[in-house]
Amino acid sequence: DTAVSQTPKYLVTQMGNDKSIKCEQNLGHDTMYWYKQDSKKFLKIMFSYNNKELIINETVPNRFSPKSPDKAHLNLHINSLELGDSAVYFCASSPQGHGTGLTGELFFGEGSRLTVL
Amino acid sequence: KNEVEQSPQNLTAQEGEFITINCSYSVGISALHWLQQHPGGGIVSLFMLSSGKKKHGRLIATINIQEKHSSLHITASHPRDSAVYICAGPPGEKLTFGTGTRLTIIP
Questions:
Q1: Dihedral angle sign, alpha carbons of residues B92, B95, B96, B97
Q2: B34: closest CA among B97, B82, B104?
Q3: Cα–Cα distance for residue pair A50/B63, rounded to 1 Å
Q4: Which of B43, B48, B65, B97 is the mutation pick for testing A, counting most A CBs within 10 A?
Q5: DSSP B44-105
Q6: B10 shares contact with chain A (CB less than 8 Å)
Q7: C-beta atoms of A102 and B50 within 8 A
Q8: Which residues in chain B are contacts of A58 at CB distance < 8 A?
């Protein structure tokens, strides 16, 4: 069983469209994350959720909206896609929650490669 | 300037060589992660450590919190170790990632 699964793995779309990427973890972890990896392979945190509550929103445009229906799921919705949104988006989870001072070991999904034309 | 710096950026070595990748950070952190990104793109957590040394198979990670420095060592390197190695440190829940070290092991 895949611990952290993301769908879709590849997404090609036109500028201006709205798209979603889904993430699910079956590890029972409290905390989930979205990271963006740009063309230079640099990883940067976008959002962190702990038990469905938004903890980190790291200067991401309002066009990006995370949704956590339950602590096993963290979806990423992107409105009005722009060329610069092209990247690989990674979902991850960790056991420790906010306030512990330690993130805990991270478990990553396989990534979703978004290409905006 | 990135808060987490890695060196070298690229490293090519012969199979069997001892490999060292360094990570330095400019802010105080309580723990540090080492990640491996495969050529196919998937990311795997190798270590999370807050002091001393951890070993897993041929991989060894060390950290000195006071000196703000960590190293990842690979003994008896093998072509399957070819990947990008990334260090990452909090503070708190926010991870800051290094720029990665691309390691290529030649048979």
A1: positive
A2: B97
A3: 28
A4: B43
A5: EEEEEESSEEEEETTEEEEEETTTTEEEEEESS--GGG-EEEEEEE-STT--EE---EEEEE
A6: no
A7: yes
A8: 94
| Cα A34 to the center of its chain, rounded Å | 3
Q: What is the residue-level pLDDT of chain A in tens, covering all 117 positions?
A: 679 999 999 999 999 999 999 999 999 998 899 999 998 888 998 988 888 888 877 778 999 999 999 989 999 999 999 999 999 999 999 887 544 555 578 899 999 999 999
Query: Can you tell me the distance from the alpha carbon of B74 to that of B71, in angstroms, rounded to the nearest whole number?
Result: 10
A90 touches chain B (CB under 8 A): yes
Contacts with A, B 35-54, CB within 8 Å: 35, 37, 41-45, 48, 50
Q: In one letter, which amino acid is B104?
A: T
pLDDT digits (tens, 9 = 90+) for B50-71: 889 999 999 999 999 888 899 9
